[in-house]
What we know:
It is a single chain. This protein has helices at 2-21, 43-54, 85-94, and strands spanning 37-38, 63-71, 75-83, 102-104, 123-131, 137-146, 152-159. By secondary structure, it is an alpha+beta fold. It has a single domain, classed as Double Stranded RNA Binding Domain, CATH 3.30.160. A hairpin with a 5-residue loop joins strand 6 (137-146) and strand 7 (152-159). The radius of gyration is 21 Å and the shape is globular.
Amino acid sequence: MRTGLACLSIVSLAVAVSGMMTGCxxxxxxxEPRPGSAQPENAADIAGEASEFGGILIPDxxxxxxxxxxxxxxxxxxxxxxxxxxxVNRLLQASNFATPLVKAFQVSETAIAGPxxxxxxxxxRAEDEYRDADGKSVIRIVIVDERDQAxxxxxxxxFTT
Length: 161
């Protein structure tokens, strides 16, 4: 009888742990991949795809910190870069960004790499709409974290609606 209770307890524990783990690895608000998201072998590959998708030209002096994509009903690309002030200017000019950066006191977007945006001493934000070769609309959001005189963390979101 004791052996039967011990086995029953072990099975019950296993079922409980399995039940608690159901859903692990799904979407989270801290930028973790969601179901339907794809993370290629490296961030440079996905940044290249994102550049084509949203007409973004990443300057040579920028470092891709991370890049992610999600495909479902809509497509979303997120890129995090590190560069200097001149790199930010080159990115916006080469990408034909239609609106200027403006001071933002807080943003709803989260960083996928680099320091958390809520710790930034200065944030700038711009948003525009890009038309791809097929005439489809892509919303482009650029957030610039002005960390110090020389360092800029650039967070880009590109998505269809």
